[in-house]
Amino acid sequence: MKINIRLETPKDYYAVEEVAREAFWIDNWKSEPKIPDEPLLISRLRECPSYVPELHFVAEVDGKIVGHIIYSKSKIENEDGNSYETLTFGPISILPEYQGKGIGKALMLHSFDEAKRLGYCAVLIYGYPSYYPRVGFKLCSDFGITPAGNSEHETVDDSFMVYPLYDGALNGVSGKYHIDPVYSGLTPEDAAEYDKKFPPKPLHIPESIDLVLNQLKPDAQKAIKELKLATLHALTTKSEREIRSLDGIDDEAIKTIKSVMHKHGKHWGNAI
Fold it and tell me: What DSSP state is assigned to residue 250?
């Protein structure tokens, strides 16, 4: 399969948002069905001062757009008020039937090379701990980087990761991570209204975390319940390392969680 990567153009807008809609239709952290807000986010990002059009790439296969990656500027601010400009990507979207074929990795590596050429030092994301370390992402906590207090993510866990674009890129850099407020300014109502531009589609009903809980022993059940996760998809934001550190979790519990997650098409475990 030959993958062609190029910059997004205005004529690609609808196709890119449609790819994001398909890619995220079943990704839902909550227990109730909802329309994904990623297409709306992409549209709003294009209008933000932080948007980096030089890094908005699409991936084509046989002339069809099957994936994309979009970037915005972010920053790390230390206690002295000094700021270091960084990048954030997201959403990165791949059509479901093309996932697992290396397209996402190709988009990332291509855009990382270009970001380095443009003079950026690092890319920070919130992502899946079972996947992104395989591409080269490291834990932000290892660099003393934490989310800013006004972020929707105010706790540090293994989903908060950084990709230094060159050796020593973050030497002497630590502090609070600030992201464009557009990421936290989306409402379900706005997402539903924006979704009317696309053909109607039945909502996806998320798989409940109970599918895991019902297979675990009481101590392991209690440990997972304390995370207050509603769905299997929400569990994908937790690394195997984090889950193993919980009281009540043993090898048998990890094996059970992996079995249930994989049965329901969720990739989980081992990357960190």
Answer: -
Instruction: Give the H/E segment covering residue 176.
Output: strand 175-178
pTM score, two decimals? 0.92
Instruction: Give yes or no for a contact between 182 and 44, defined as CB atoms under 8 angstroms apart.
Output: yes
pLDDT over threshold 60, residue 151: no
**Would you call the peptide bond into 91 cis, given omega within 30 degrees of 0 as the criterion?**
yes
The DSSP-derived string for 40-93 is HHHHHHTTSTTB-GGG-EEEEETTEEEEEEEEEEEEEE-TTS-EEEEEEEEEEE
Q: Which helix (H) or strand (E) holds 18?
A: helix 13-24
Evaluate if residue 120 carries a pLDDT over 70: yes
Whether 1 has a pLDDT exceeding 90, the answer reads no
C-alpha–C-alpha distance, residues 227 and 42, integer Å = 30
Question: Of 165, 163, 90, whose CA–CA distance to 121 is shortest?
Answer: 165
pLDDT of residue 150: 45
- Report the pLDDT value the prediction gives residue 155, as an integer from 0 to 100: 58
- Mean pLDDT confidence for 92-97: 97
CA 81 – CA 89 distance, rounded (Å): 24
169-172 long-range Cβ contacts below 8 angstroms, 24+ apart:
169/121, 169/122, 170/121, 170/122, 170/143, 170/145
Contacts 24+ apart (CB under 8 A), 188-192: 188/34, 188/35, 188/37, 190/37, 190/40, 191/34, 191/35, 191/36, 191/37, 191/39, 191/40, 192/35
Q: If you search the block for the tokens 């932000």, which residue do you land on?
A: 140
Rounded-to-integer distance, Cα 53 and Cα 86, Å? 15
Q: Identify the burial level of 154 via C-beta atoms within 10 angstroms of its C-beta, where 0-12 means exposed, 13-18 middle and 19 or more buried.
A: exposed
